[in-house]
Structures are given as structure tokens and as C-alpha cells.
Amino acid sequence: MKPATGATPLIAIAAAAVDTETTGPDATKARVIQIGAIGIAHGKVVRQPRLDLLIDPGEAIPSEVSLVHGITDADVDGAGTFLDAWAQFQEFVGDRILVGHSIGFDLAVWERECRRARLPWKKPRALCVRLLATIANPNLVDHSLEPIAAWLRLEIAGRHSALGDAIAAGDIFAALIPELRKRNIRTLGEAEVACLALSDALEAGHRAGWAEPVSRPQAPAFQPVDPYAYRHSVGSLMSGPPVVVKSTKPTRQVIDLMVKRKISSVLVSDRGTPDQPIEDYGIVTERDLLRRISSDAERAFDMPVASIATRPLISIRAAAFAYRAIGRMDRLKIRHLAVRDDGGMLVGVLSARDLLRLRAAAAIDLDDTIEHAKDAAELAATWSMLPGVVRSLIGEAIDPRVVAEIISDELCSLTRRAAVLAEQQIQIEGHGPPPCAYAMLVLGSGGRGESLMAPDQDNAIVFADGEPDGLEDSWFKILGAKLADMLDISGVPYCKGGVMAANAAFRGSLDTWKARVEDWVRRLRPEDLLNVDIVYDLRPVHGDTTLAAQFIEYAYERGHAEPVFAKLLGEQMTTGNPFTVFGGFQLEDGRLNIKKHGLFPIVATARTLAIRHGIRERSTRARLEKLIALDIGGERDMKAMLAGHAMLIGLLLAQQTHDIYAGIPVSNRIDVNALTREQQIELKSLIKRLLSASDLVRDLMFA
User: Fold this and answer.
1) Which residues form the CBS domain (predicted)?
2) Could you count the other beta carbons within 10 Å of the beta carbon of residue 433?
3) Are 278 and 315 in contact (CB under 8 A)?
């Protein structure tokens, strides 16, 4: 279990709900007589195991206090000391985040007891549900346990016992997670910062002698990674074309072939040829052969190889980064992966030997856990690992565009897995399987491979048949809604612009999408084309990729054939002037929105000209490079945009990872004053140049 950081979503933290009963309410004098604790995992209270300890305080328990919690001197007679209880408590909670109601009191009492017993004290990371409830519902008059529980419709049992109050605090915390998410508080760091802003409540605790209930979030220690695994694709490491044999081939001949070719596996299919859909193949490895020979030596050599082959074939995209292949092999305990192209066709094989060139000490912090997550909480836990990797890769001076591509890969994997889980939920609820073939699409920056750490839920669905509001559309409406909810819980918020398959405008049959394209290219005003352009960045992540391919090909053909359409898209590029009359930046709270004033003009220029000139590349970088190769636009202007694109992504990623660990909501704005003078000059020069991007597009529209 990795320690929680400020980036860890509340739903994903490993926590322990705790409570203490004492000899009195004065934290400066009270002695501990009972400690209760229970675990919290994946946003739910884990009922077993639990901790319930009575402690002999070494002094009489006042009778008026016993009336509250019911614990008398007789109850603690013969109980262990705080020293004994503390060891059990520490073993139970481990490195988990502690959660409690008015936990500042508990922390203060524990610290005094530890010092009295000459035990080392280090304040644990903690959250107070009283403060969290104040944030989630500031209109609640009383934020003691009972009113909070009543508001959240929770029942409390065992009130004023340490375990009973610990369970109540745990249940309240779990119920507060979605309420806090409504207020854009999703992570541990954001919750800590929000609690620290409640100065009146904190001051009242200080006056009562309580400890600070939460800590200010800090970035974890820098973790180096081997950049090789994050820089190289599976396609650059695989062996290809793959060796394929017919299913009927005798095992003896297959062994001879493997020895002759010095390979550790072969693929098996009825046709015995590569370049077919990945589902047509099985695999036979050295270990498969040895096991069969060991168990049935007399017949093994004459068996058809199909009887030994393993199916279904485990595969990975050629465009995936090496770290994902390492994670998948490790998770599934296998040594070979088939490699497929984006259309699902077999193109190669990757073996553990191919990965030996990676340094043995490589830190692969992103693995394959998204692919087998069971629910949104597990997806959230995996997604929360991303900021650490991004921070490390920036430190390794990896091209920021490559880092953005890695983020996009994770976003696409997250969307794909969420779609699978949503589909399973729909069937469990009795809505049946998908009514026809469909493809889940990621749009915008995720589709281009240029995601940052504040991605939107830009997604869509194209399905094979059906009319708007028809039976098929109704099923996919449910799928889109469940997908949106799951992604929001996982850490990718709902798209404020509504670009989600849950909305009718972003799902439809192939014919419906084609009709939409026809409508787009006939629009006469740029404002009528809001959110249309990001559809041209689509990437299929789940389902029938041929549907996506047909749709995007049609969209490009029609967009290219109607110059006015591309021209209108270009006219949407106006972003306003971010400069003051004195030439400085107009800042908001000391920050500048460089996505709006920097990235957007570059991305829109590349996309609009790509549509106009029939360029099928998906990424901004590839589009600009293709424009240069076709001599469209001045080479100097295009290269300036290329360099500026990388610089802006780097600045935003650095700012966003800093903000995530500091508990600051992630945005597309950067602290200009934190930049070096050279960076400020370079940024100002680039944005001034981009003010004329719309004019450049207009001039190049008919180049």
C-alpha cells in the first residue's frame, strides 16, 4: 500500500476511523480509558477487523464522566496500560490516514499520553469529519455527531463508546465524500486546505488545548523513474512480423521451428498468417511445450499445436508505452504479449526478453491496474498515481508532449475500463447487453494525446444502428450517464461544456453522426459550431473501432470538401488580448490562463488547417509537422508554434503537479511570478505572436 499524498482522492485513501474516551473533557488533563478504531477502504467502512481497547488510566474516573460514556473504575480494573494499548493501536492503524470527529482533541490527548509514557510522538495525518461537514453543509446549525448523521440520513449506534463513535465517524466520512465532490473537493490535499481555511473553528480548538486537526499538504519526496519505459513504445521494442503457424501443425515441427528461429513463442491460427484480427490467434510458449511434454511425453510431439495453445490471446497496442507492457506482464504473470495496431490487427509479439534492455532498477510507478479495477474507487486510486509520475518525468527532462501523451493514454484506459464497468452495471440492473455494436470515443486533448492534469470528460458514443430517442439510443443514454458518474468519482470531473456521451448531442448511430456532419458543414455562423472541432480529435478506446474509423473518415472528407466550414472553425479562435496597456499580462489572482491564450490558438490552428487540407494526423505536433512538409504556412511560424506548444505544456504540467500536492484545485492557469525572467520573456513573446493566429489561418485557408 503506497502512502497517501495530497493527490490521493478521498474515495481512494486507506484510512482508519478512530475515537477516544477519557477521564474528562479537558485535553490538557484527560487520561485515555478507551480507544476504538475501524478501517475505511474504497470509500466504505470495513466492519472487520476492529479495535476496542479499555485502558487503566492510573487514576479514578470522575462519576460525572462515567455517566456520559458508562465506563467506571470497575470496568478498567485489570485492563492494560496506555503503553500496551498504544502498541496495539499503532499496529492496527499503520500508515493509514486517521479520521475522527473533533479529532484535534484525540490527537492532543494521545500526544500527552505518549510523552508521559516516554513514547516517541509523530503527529499522524488526519481529517476531522466535523470540519469536513462544515465545508459540505455550512448551513447546518450544529456540527456535532448527531446532527451531521441526521443530515446524511445515517443511524448511530453505541454513542459515547470509543468504537461506536469511531464507526459513526467512519460512516459520516464515507457519506461526506460525494457531498464534498459537489464542492470540487476531491483529494486529500484539497480537503486539508479547505479545513485549514476554517480559521474560527481552528482557533476555538487551539483555545481548548486541542491539536491542529489537519496538516498542510506537502509534496512527497521526489521519486526517480527510468525514463526509457515512459519514452519508448511497445512497437519500437516488439518482434515483428510475428511467427504464426497453422493450428493443425504437429508440435514436433513447431519445436523445430522455434529452435531454428531462436524464438520463445509462436502464434497459432487456422490460417497460419499474420495481419488478422487479434481474436483469431492463440499462443504457444516454451513453457507450454515443456509442461505438455512433462505430462504426456508419448503423445505430445504428434499433437496438433492448437491443442496446446493458450486462448484468448493477451495483447497490447503497438502505440502503448513500455511501462504498460511491463505492468501487464507483471499483473498477469506472463512473459509474452501479442501486439495489435489501433484497428485490432496482429502486428507483432513482445517478450520479457525484449524488455531486458530496460534498467533493472527502473521505477515503474504506473502499471496495469486500471485494466482490472473493480469499481470507481480502484480507478481513482490508480489515477492518483499519475501526478507523481508526471512530476518525476518532468524532472527527468522528458519532452512535455510525451508526458502529455502518457497522461492521455491513462485517461483513455480509464475511460475504457469505466465503460466496461458501466456496461456490466447496466446488465446487472436488467437492461441487457448492448443492443448493437458501438465504439466509445475520447475527444479533444485526450483524443489528440495532449491531456494535462485537469482533463475534462470529453467523450462520445457512435453505435451501429438506431434513431435518436429510439431503443438503441435509450440504452446508450444509460451507458453514457453511468460512464460520466464513474469518471467523476474516479477523478475526471463532468465536462462543464456538456461534451459527454450522457448528452444526446454526443451519442448517436453512424448515420446520425453523418447527418450531424452534414449539418455542421452547412452552418453559416462560427458560434453555431461550438464543440464541433474537438470531435475531429477523436480516438476510439472501447468497442468496434471500425465504426469510429468510418465516422472520422466521413467527417474529414466532408470538412475538407467545404472550405467555408473550416473557415468558420478558424473564426472561433478569438481569445481576447491578455496584455495591459503597459505590455504586462492581465492576471487573475496572479495567474494567467495559458491554455486559453496559448495552447488553444496553436491547437485550433493546427486542427483547422488539417481539416481544410485533408491532413489525417491527430496530434497537434504531427499536424504542424505535416503542414510544414506540405509547405503550408511559413516554416518560421509553424516551427514557432511547435516550440511554443512544447513550452506551454511543460509550464502547465509543472504548475498543475505543484498545485495538486499543495491541495490547490487544478486549473489551466499558471503563476507567472513564479517563472524565471527568461521564461516570462519567452512566454510573452509567444502569446504576442499568437494574437495573429486567426489571421494566419484565414490567409492559409486556400493555400
Assistant:
1) 238-299, 309-366
2) 9
3) yes
